[in-house]
Design goal:
This protein is α+β, with helices and mostly antiparallel strands and 545 residues long. 48% of the residues lie in helices and 14% in strands.
Amino acid sequence: TQQLDMATFIRTQVDRGANTWSARNEAMKKWYNLIRLEDNLAQDNMESVISADPRTGFNTAAWLLQPKAWSFRIDTEGFSDEEVRGASVVERAMEIEVARANRFSRTGLYGPFFRRILATFLATGWLSFMAVPTQPHWTFRAWNPATVFPEYDDSGDSISIGRRYILSASQVNTRIAEQGWIPPASRFTQSQTVRTLWLRTQGTTWMGALIGQNHLARPMLETPFHTIPAYVMPGGGLPDDGSIIASDKWRTEIGQALVAAVHDMQQNYNKMLTYMQQLLKDTANPKWVERVNGAGVLTPENIYKRGSIYSIEPGEDIFSVGPPGMPPELRGHELDIRAQIQRGLFPDVSFGNFTAQVSSFVMSQATATAQQVLSPFHETLMHAMGQSAQVNLQFMRDFGGDLFGLPMPDVPDELSVDFEYDIVIPGDIINRANTARLLNPDFRLSADTLVRILFPEVKNAAMEMGRLNSEDALNHAMSKAITIIREFRRGALEAAELNDRESEVLLNQAADTMQAQVLGVQRAQGVAQPTLDDAGFKALTGALD
């Protein structure tokens, strides 16, 4: 009886959450159909045009939002030198864990972790994933937001997260074994609805799982987590929670997809393009008039056949009537709608669609527009990843206090962690640098800064500069000459060991001649150099070994 009551509790709570967010899920379908370019204007024997703007805008946003190079930053204000060094170790360890989780998920159906959560985030307006510090590595799981139903308290903190999704029979049986859940009396043979419920109350976090209608795979049991290890956050929407407009419509507006702002405008634009396409065909094809006594000789099937012959009687006639031309205002109206869409999504110039030379000022405005459109999604992702890392570190302290099997560095118990990465728009840095040179001809950036901005995958700019200096030194003519002289000297020593006096003398003379040539070139350039004897040269070349 207790198990049935608990199964009913999980099913009731999850289904109630699904009903509460049903309007949001309907809006998600509407936005997603726009992105997938659903042809809702199709008619029999008529043309319809669906603009590719929603899909190209989605692809561009997903590409720009992908973290190419990210970092964790711990607020070290007030830390000692030892604690600052320890914080650096923790930062690097977290970066390795996230990179590992992203890398090891790239061959799955949905691709890398970041691509999955960003694709669903942009398409639905909700970021949803789970992050737990399992041993020996962190585990990240991307959730489809349409299957997740959160509940928040009056301060906006998550107090309950229900999830409802469908798995095939084999997937359900595998999930039970992987999670260590209670198996059924007999293995499932049909697809099942899985409901999981996370609940936080009075400082304790509970979790339960129900499969089908009544199989309690995991009773509502207390977990070791002090908070729910899942992050469900809206982005790109409006700030109302039902207090401004007293209705449940706020649930469809607090989190909105990338294309939500242009949805209605894009539908209007598609209708406009379709109408223009049909009108253009009607304008290009004249109407026909038959003045005949009996049945007509023209049919829609043969009127435009090449080489058609129509037979009429004397006194009868067939002639065409040309329709009026397209109104010039039609094109202007289409451009006006197009401009409205660009304000809500991405300007055409950001795709490289240049009809004329674009000034750096215009390009900077296009860059600012793109960053403005992406800002809600960018900031939400950084907040969620920073919070997940901060919570996971606390979990690790609670579970054992080590750092991925290694001793935890000397850092304070409570750490404030931020996740940071930049949206890099191609061409933006060049335009800004050109503008800076116009304002200040002496403007320049250090090599370290240029490497950090243009090549974020290079982790240590100073080390890279050192490698370049080493390569330059080895490729210098002086270095090559020294190498040749050393080889001559070594050859002379080997000849002496073999009692080959002639070769020894020739090799030493060749080394002396080249050494004199090198020193002579330096003197010709005005560089005073001391003369090296054999002992001094051997000491110099030995130091280079």
